[in-house]
Structures are given as structure tokens and as C-alpha cells.
Amino acid sequence: MLIYGRINIKTIKAIASDTTVNILVLCLSPGKGGLELYARRSTKIIEELGHQCITVSNPNSTVFKANNEPDKKRIFSLKTSFHLLPLYAALKLARIIDTNNIDVIHIHWSKDFNLAVFAKLFSSRHVKLIYTRHMAITRYKNDFYHKFLYRHVDRFIVITKQLMKEACQFLPLPESKIKLLHHGINKPNLKAPNCDKFKLTHTPGNYLHIAIFSRIEEGKGQHLLVEAARALKDRNKEIHVTVIGHVMDQVYYQNLETSIRKYNLNTQFHFHPFIESASAYMSCFDVIALTTHTETFGLVLIEAMQAGVAVIGSNAGGVPEIINDQLTGLLFEPGDVESLTRTIEYYYDNPDSRKKMATQGQKFVAVNFSEQQHKNSLNKILEDF
Q: Which of 69, 166, 193, 328 lies 20 to 30 Å from 348 when distance is taken between CA atoms?
């Protein structure tokens, strides 16, 4: 028996409409990154499009609980112990699908793929499966098991042109099933943010305040900023770095702190836990950096650009589709401390150019990554089977 709060799936009434598409958003990831935040946001977008939506999430997911607290009847909690062959969880999920007359399962986390396929097979309904891929595809999926799984995918959504190339190359899917859907963001909130929590005290007037919004783990590259800050300090150029995100790798975090103390950068690095509505605070900073080795998309970049803030990103993955180097922001070579240091130093030495690129980036995002464009394209995918 599956229970969320006081809700029992045996007694919950079906959420259905003859004039709408009934969609189940599945995301069992317990994380707090861009994937989880977009999956959460997609539920709101789906409802704004006039469709019905329920969510099936991890019982430990603070992301989904925070978003849906006022409407718990639309949230279901589900655990799975065997990701490779999650038959028991799939039977539970199929029961939710049937009880709520679901037409479409929309998944976002790759580890939910097997579960969704088996639930689709176990369901008594002719449910469709949409898979939005947020991560890079790095190898062929042509073995028997993956061919079986992908045979049950009705639409495969990719969020960048680079991912489109990878999907066409590596997946056993006809190109007609693969759709490009860039992320979109709402019009900016013109209300000035409360920056008090990020305000720096006892600092000189001439410094650059950089923020990085990401989980704290090696793949996110916070250590590169430590090394860049050290190099710039040797050149008598001071930067302050605010790291905003939860600690995923405690050992990595401790190593960061050790390096910061070793280089005497204690007063230049500031750590804050994960915050909701991060985009509302981006204008508190001079620069937003994305230092991952390879980022599939980089939603944080378009949020920063929309806020009129200069950006830095690695020259890999989907980031070059967002940042036109020297025009809408600056790119550095992945993992290259000296390259990152040069980009930061350019912003430090050229404040007028930094502001100009921030303005051009803001215009670029308004034209290419609007929420309305995203909604229209998603709605077409949902309705056009």
C-alpha cells in the first residue's frame, strides 16, 4: 500500500478531464539541482497550459514537498530498491496511472527510465511515455535491454542542440521521436532583491563579487575558483566568491576549506546553503560563474543573463549555445585554471565591457529563451502524438 501523508492510493479519486491531457510527472531523484528544479517547475507549466498534472517523487524530496505543500492530493511518494528491474515499484506506479486516468508519463531522471517503462507495460491504459533528457549521452545504447526500453518511448526531449546530436548518434530511436526543447524562463522580477545575506563587510572598494550556484562536489568545479582567486591575489586583484548550494561530497568540501585556509583566502570565500528562487538573488553579484567541466545546458546562466549579470561558463556541452564569447559573456577552457583566471581578470580590469556584455546577454535571453516559447513548444509535444 502506498501512502503519502494521509492519502491512500486505493481511495483517491481520479484526477481526469475529457478536454485535457492527464500527465504524471515522475522524478524520484532526491537531489536539488537543475534537473529536479525543472521537473518541479514543469508541473506548474503543465497546469498553466490547461492540463491536469500529478507528481510522483522521492519521499525524501525537499524540492517537490516545498513546491506542492498546499496541494498534497496531487503528490505521491514512491520508493524503488532495484533500479535495474524495479518490478514491485512499477506495479505501484501502474496503479497510480490507472487510478488517475493518466495519459502521459513524463520522466526526467535517467534512473527512473526502467521504472516508467515497466509501469507503462503493467498499466491497463494506453499511456504514452515522454523522456526529457537533461544529461549528456556518452555511449551507444544498442544492447538488447536498452533497445527494449527505448521501444516504449513515444517522445524523447533534448534541451540542447548538442544533446540532439548525441541522441541521434547513440540511441536506438527514430529521429522523428527526438524533439529539441530549450529551457525557458519567466520575465524578470523587477523588484530589487534583498541582498543583505550576501553583503560583504570589511572589504576594499575595488573587488569583484562572483557567485556560483551549484551543489558542492568536484564535478561542479568550485576548486577552480579557489585556484583562480589565489592567482589573482598574487596579482593584487581581489575577488570574493559566494558559493550557494548544499554539500554533496563532504570530503571535497573539506578539501576546499583546507585549500582556502592554505592560500589565506578565508575572507574571500563565503558559503551559503541551497536557497529557493535563486534567480531572485543573482543581481546581488557582479558575475555568475558556471565552472563544471561539461554542463549539458546551464539554466543558471540564462537566469543570470536575464537578471543583467555578467556570466562565465566552460567552453563545453550546451554552454556555448548560451554564451557567445566576448559578446554575451565569457568562456573558459574546461578544467583550465589559467583560462578561468584570465576571464575573471578581464571582467575585473574592464568593468565597462562587463556591463556591456551583461546587457547584450539580457537581450539574447529575452529573444531566445522566453517562458512562453518553452510553453508553446512543450504543449505541442504533449498534444501531438
A: 193
Q: What is the pLDDT of residues 125-173, one digit of tens each?
A: 999 999 999 999 999 999 999 999 999 999 999 999 999 999 999 999 9
Q: How far apart are CA 193 and CA 213, in angstroms?
A: 16
Closest CA relative to residue 377, chosen from 130, 181, 153: 181
Residue 107 and residue 116 in contact, taking contact as beta carbons nearer than 8 Å: yes
DSSP string computed for 328-351: TBEEE-TT-HHHHHHHHHHHHH-H
Residue 147: which region, alpha, beta or left (left: phi > 0; alpha: psi -120 to 50)? alpha
Please state the rounded mean pLDDT for residues 51-71: 75
Identity (one letter) of the amino acid at 8?
N
State which amino acid sits at residue 334.
P
Look up residue 266 and give its DSSP letter: G
Fold match between domain 3-184+370-383 and domain 196-368 = yes
Residue 249 CA, chain-centre distance (Å), reads 19
Please, how many CA atoms are within 13 Å of residue 199, restricted to the half-sphere of its CB? 6
SS3 208: strand
Query: What pLDDT is recorded for position 71?
Result: 56
User: What is the model's pTM?
Assistant: 0.77
Q: In CATH, which superfamily holds the domain spanning 196-368?
A: Glycogen Phosphorylase B; (3.40.50.2000)
pLDDT tens-digit map of 269-304: 999 998 878 888 999 999 999 999 888 888 899 999
The CA distance from 79 to 70, in Å, is 22
Q: What's the confidence (pLDDT) of residue 275?
A: 86
- Residue spans of the domains in the chain: they are 3-184+370-383, 196-368
Cross-strand partners of 287: 210, 310
Q: Which three cell numbers stand for residue 188?
A: 524578470
User: 3-184+370-383 domain in CATH 3.40.50.2000?
Assistant: yes
d(CA 248, CA 237): 31
